[in-house]
Amino acid sequence: MSIAISAESTIDLPKDLLEKFNISTVPFTILLGDETVLDGVVPTESIFDFVEKNKVLPKTSAVNEYQYVEHFSKLLKTSDAVIHFSLSSEMSSAYANAVKASKELKNVYVIDSRSLSTGIALLAIKASRLASSGKSAEQIVSIVKEATKNVQASFVINKLDYLKKGGRCSFLALFGANLLKIRPQIIVSNGKMISGKKYRGDYNLVVKNYCADTLKQFPSQDKSIAFITYTTASDLAVQYAEDALKGAGFKEIYKTRAGGTIASHCGPNTLGILFLTI
Q1: What does the pLDDT look like over 231-261, one tens digit per residue?
Q2: I need a labelling partner for 252 at 20 to 30 A (CA). Which of 32, 97, 151, 232 fits?
Q3: pTM
């Protein structure tokens, strides 16, 4: 049985990794003023340039039902079934739209990742590997649905400016955080983004401490694969993260850039490590 693995562009995987793991994507759209661009295509720097120039965030738009029907139908021409992973239903209407579209077709399974970015990728890659091993669509869906509980997805943010523009923190919180050089951790929990530990000081050292704390907090790790995902980051910050994951014994470590949709909400110098727990 041929099974297609699918996700939205918010999976934040580059083309070479999408091809390596045989994952197809359908893009969110981003409005930069009057210009409409596709997530996963527009450079992340273009998002930051727009915000710097216009002092407002871009508007992001989830994939609609019609676009999903087209996407799934295309995949079904060469596959017997489609397993699709959506951005957390707590963050977007994408999941609901994908479910509606799946009801118009046969053998399309839609999974609420309860995560974002390469947290979704961890699930999609697991599904892809299960499909390659000969598991049925129903078996894969059962396994990866259970695995959604085991995604460790978190980030550390350099500044709260984008969260303020998006209405996710007050001006007072922004002023205090910038004054004290607070670098907040954002954790994905139960499908939602919540505030975690608050770090202070040099951002590179913050990344180093965040990685150490996260690995300590989640000691039971699936060592097969991990991601370092960032909007922008210094070479040193990325190296600190890679060293931490290597030291923990992860076998495959991929460094990826967050796409336009994710970057629009968290801003420059946001970095996270993502892996599955066991």
Answers
A1: 999 999 999 999 999 999 999 999 999 999 9
A2: 232
A3: 0.94
